[in-house]
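Input record, target 12 of the design panel.
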């Protein structure tokens, strides 16, 4: 029995080494160089005149060609007469052999060694085989039917060129696979060394590792060096948004329940946080059970890519650009109102889902959807950090939620914030402040970038390119919406309409967020009254929904009326949140947690007004 175990272990080890060996050979620069030479050879065939060139046939060449023709498994044609060799036929046969050999030696092994299902392998083999057989068929067609030489050359070249591109794509993929295997081995060795002695790091040290070249993240009290894993992360560069900070909440809310049951990959762990303070508990099965039930009801692959969201996105973008054109060329009151409305609609319907990676399962498409915020002249990189990390991770937590920092001292939203004399009027002047939300959002970009380093869990990577692009975005915004209309019309008209456009944009954007958390029914927490409270339960207690049965408010607010569902499942397309409402309501009732829903948007707005009035006149609620 022991000999059987040893043999099995050795076989597994040999297979693993063979797999890596095949990848290494097929990723070698000689193969890639051969692809380039083949492509050049095809280009030469395409460019040179196809005239009949005969060269003398030596006896030894006749024997070689005769043997080759008898062994070649495909239909062929004569390449020599009794006295001469036909150079054109030789070149065509060389082309045919080179492509078929690449198929047999390079592509087929790649398909078989990849750990994909049988259907994937079958489809790829059929497609590539058809492409490969087209080449000798085309050559025979030319020889027998006498196709025009130009048509024939282009046909052969296009087939071969597609083949070479496929080879290049596969080579790039397998090189990444090989690098990933090598990285895994290095990380396993590093993990073995770490186990011998667990290191502790302070936050002052951790926050320095916040770039693509040196990326650490904290999950619970453990530190993970994910620098080498960045390019393989299914969520793309989302990790960089929390580089050098605490990503515990994002780990649990964005990853499958099957994965969060376990610890993050331990080969990346390099140590622990010294004097780590964990405010929330993730060990309770409450949130885990909700995730499992939702994943069973709606598979994760169906959480995004909703056709309704794509249609909404197209309509919102079309409306935005049409209104921008209307505003720039006419600068009327109606154009300013419409531009502000559609800018806000693009933000809440496209940008919001995109920056939560809920727009599409394709990470590039979700990133582009997130950058719609830059099209409306704000900044997506700041939004992802301050919203995803500075709000969703710690909703209505006084010391951590970024919303309290950006509103105080103008507005008092938490009982523990200092109350000034003018706060007793905040329920009145708040409606003036809301007209300037878009101004502060746009002009506060660079201040927000500096804020990233103020607290560890909010730190994230910002490249110089992103800073430069934001300067360009702001200059374009001023030029398109203010300077150009001032030159075309008058500065009085331009400034007036510019203010209207920003005020409409601000109101349509700010009010949806305000009524979700700043109401009498939504809870608040702080460092003094929170002690390992379950993170999932806090998302429900500190949020409130409104008008869930309203088709209009669901689409106008970009699904923000389903705020509780959105906070528990930020990667869920907002057009599908209503499908999981009942599941969360049942779980909340079973756990005796308040799940609150306002009947209408007006009711939610009135509650927001009452909260501001009470906090402005009383120290405590």
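The sequence produced for target 12 reads:
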């Amino acid at each position: 029995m022991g000999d059987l175990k040893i043999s099995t272990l050795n076989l597994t080890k040999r297979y693993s080494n063979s797999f890596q060996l095949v990848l290494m050979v097929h990723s070698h620069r000689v193969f890639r160089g051969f692809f380039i030479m083949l492509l050049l050879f095809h280009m030469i065939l395409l460019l040179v005149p196809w005239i009949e060139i005969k060269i003398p046939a030596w006896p030894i060449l006749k024997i070689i060609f005769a043997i080759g023709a008898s062994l070649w498994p495909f239909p062929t044609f004569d390449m020599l007469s009794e006295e001469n060799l036909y150079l054109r036929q030789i070149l065509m046969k060389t082309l045919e052999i080179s492509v078929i050999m690449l198929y047999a030696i390079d592509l087929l092994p790649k398909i078989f060694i990849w750990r994909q299902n049988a259907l994937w392998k079958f489809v790829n083999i059929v497609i590539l085989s058809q492409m490969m057989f087209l080449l000798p068929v085309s050559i025979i067609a030319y020889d027998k039917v006498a196709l025009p030489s130009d048509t024939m050359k282009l046909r052969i070249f296009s087939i071969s060129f597609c083949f070479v591109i496929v080879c290049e794509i596969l080579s790039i993929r397998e090189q990444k696979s090989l690098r990933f295997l090598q990285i895994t081995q290095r990380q396993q060795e590093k993990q073995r060394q770490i186990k011998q002695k667990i290191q502790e790091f302070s936050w002052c040290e951790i926050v320095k590792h916040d770039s693509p070249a040196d990326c650490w993240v904290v999950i619970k009290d453990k530190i993970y060096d994910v620098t080498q894993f960045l390019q393989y992360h299914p969520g793309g560069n989302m990790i960089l948004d929390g580089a050098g900070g605490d990503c515990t909440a994002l780990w649990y809310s964005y990853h499958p329940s099957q994965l969060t049951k376990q610890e993050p990959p331990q080969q990346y762990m390099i140590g622990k946080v010294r004097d780590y303070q964990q405010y929330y508990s993730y060990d309770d099965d409450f949130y885990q059970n909700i995730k499992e039930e939702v994943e069973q009801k709606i598979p994760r692959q169906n959480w995004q890519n909703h056709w309704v969201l794509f249609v909404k996105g197209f309509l919102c973008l079309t409306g935005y650009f049409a209104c921008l054109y209307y505003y720039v060329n006419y600068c009327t009151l109606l154009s300013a109102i419409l531009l502000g409305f559609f800018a806000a609609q693009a933000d809440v319907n496209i940008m919001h889902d995109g920056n939560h990676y809920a727009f599409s399962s394709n990470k590039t498409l979700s990133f582009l959807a997130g950058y719609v915020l830059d099209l409306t002249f704000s900044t997506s990189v700041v939004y992802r950090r301050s919203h995803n990390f500075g709000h969703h991770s710690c909703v209505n937590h006084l010391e951590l939620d970024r919303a309290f920092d950006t509103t105080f001292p103008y507005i008092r939203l938490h009982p523990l914030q200092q109350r000034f004399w003018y706060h007793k009027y905040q329920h009145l002047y708040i409606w003036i402040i809301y007209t300037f939300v878009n101004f502060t959002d746009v002009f506060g970009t660079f201040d927000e970038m500096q804020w990233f380093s103020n607290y560890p869990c909010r730190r994230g990577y910002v490249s110089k390119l992103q800073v430069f692009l934001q300067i360009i975005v702001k200059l374009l915004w001023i030029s398109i919406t203010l300077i150009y209309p001032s030159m075309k019309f008058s500065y009085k008209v331009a400034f007036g309409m510019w203010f209207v456009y920003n005020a409409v944009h601000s109101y349509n954007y700010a009010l949806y967020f305000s009524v979700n958390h700043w109401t009498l029914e939504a809870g608040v927490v702080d460092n003094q009254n929170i002690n390992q409270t379950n993170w999932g339960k806090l998302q429900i207690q500190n949020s409130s929904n409104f008008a869930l049965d309203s088709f209009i408010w669901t689409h106008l607010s970009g699904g923000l009326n389903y705020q509780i569902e959105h906070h528990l499942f930020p990667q869920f397309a907002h057009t599908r949140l209503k499908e999981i409402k009942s599941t969360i309501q049942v779980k909340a009732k079973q756990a005796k947690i308040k799940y609150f829903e306002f009947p209408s948007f007006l009711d939610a707005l009135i509650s927001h007004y009452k909260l501001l009035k009470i906090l402005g006149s009383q120290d405590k609620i």
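The radius of gyration is 32 Å.
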